[in-house]
Amino acid sequence: MEREKPRGGGSGEGCLVGVVRIPVKIVALIVVLPVRVVWDLLVAFGQAVQRHVLGPFSVYVLQPVLRGIGRVLTVLLKLVFVWPWAGLWRYVVRPVHEFLLAPVGRVLCAYLLRPLGEALSRVGRGGLRYVVAPLVKGVTWLVWALCMTLFVWPWVGLWRCVLAPVGRGLAWVGAVFCRYVLTPVGHGLAVIGSVVHRYLLRPVAVGAYAYVLVPLGQVLVWAWHVAGRIVRAVWRAVRLVGWVLVGRPVAQVYRHVLTPVGHVVREVWRTVRATVREVRADVRKVLFGGPGREPARSRARTLGSTTAAGKNAPAPEISLHEQKQG
After folding, report:
1. Which of 45, 73, 239, 326 is the most exposed place for a label (fewest CB within 10 A)?
2. Is 284:292 a contact under the CB 8 Å cutoff?
3. Reduced to 3 states, what is the DSSP secondary structure of residue 308?
């Protein structure tokens, strides 16, 4: 059995790639290959059982049995819950109603209930017109007279003979008092108020605004600007201290520690992935013959995309940094 020629890009592999690739090949041969073979055998066995045993059994045995059971249950349910009540309605209830109850009801309605209703209606109309209506009118007049005597006429007399004259007298007194007392007093108070506002309150307000509020506002504006400059200086100092104590160390750690570690992890992962591909290709070549070829889902993918790079383009096993240096 001829061994597959090494690829052209494998001449630059380092010791780290070789150390990682050999254990990965051993693990793939011991663990991955048996598990994959067992899984394929189980899948093939399940498909065969489904195709040759369960499918015919379901089509030719299970479905006819279920259809027969369904028909038997349908007949039993109809026999117990549908047909007795349908027969009772068709052969007992409907004939009794059509040939016995309906004629008797029509006769009773035509010769007994309708004349009785008409007689009761005439008696009711006569009693309502000649007995109830006069009685209701008399009771209504008595109630109206009693209510007027108790609640209306006494208060009307009190208002007309007592309250109205007293109210008119009080209104005349109030008008005289307002005209000859309150109006002169109001005019005097208005004159006094205008004099006080013109010669006392207005000068005091103008002086307070000019010599107190304006200087105080200027002082507050100056204090606000000074406080803003102080806060700005403090913020610049805090930002500088934060950059010196936190930002710069974090940037240095990211640049000189995390970036090299990420490159090493990326190289190890690419090496493991390429080794697994080679092992799977060798196993396929041994089992099925012909050149080993990876399935489409395991081909290399281009950087920054989710589509395969190509049919015969394997993923590079060196970092972008080394490629740029090369």
Report:
1. 326
2. yes
3. strand
* Measured distance CA(194)–CA(204) in Å, rounded: 15
Contact at 8 Å (CB) between 294 and 309?
Answer: no
Question: What does pTM read for this prediction?
Answer: 0.30
Instruction: State how far the alpha carbon of 14 is from the alpha carbons of 213, 268, 322, in Å.
Output: 83, 11, 13
pLDDT tens-digit series, residues 55-65 = 888 888 888 99
Residue identified by tokens 């047909």 is 83
CA 49 to chain centre: 47
Neighbour tally for 67: CB within 10 Å: 10
Q: Which residue has the higher pLDDT, 190 or 290?
A: 190
The two tokens of residue 87 are: 């027969």
- Asked if 315 and 309 count as a contact pair (C-beta separation under 8 A), the reply is yes
CB burial of 75-86 (b: ≥16 within 10 Å; e: otherwise) equals: eeeeeeeeeeee
The structure tokens listed for 84 are 């007795």
281 close to 293: Cβ distance less than 8 angstroms:
yes
Nearest to 23 by CA among 318, 284, 272, 286: 272
CA distance linking residue 213 with residue 106, whole number of Å:
105
Give the integer Cα–Cα distance in Å for 198 and 203.
Answer: 8
CA distances from 159 to 82, 149, 153, 173, 186 (A): 84, 15, 10, 20, 35
pLDDT, tens only, 157-174: 888 888 888 988 899 998
- pLDDT for position 307: 44
Angle between helix 15-27 and helix 259-288 axes, rounded to 10 deg: 50
Average pLDDT score, the chain:
80
CB contact set of 106 (below 8 Å; sequence gap of 6+)? none
Reported confidence tier of residue 258, pLDDT bands at 50, 70, 90: very high
pLDDT score of 230: 92
Q: What angle do CA 139, 142, 148 make, to 5 degrees?
A: 140
The two tokens of residue 72 are 């038997």
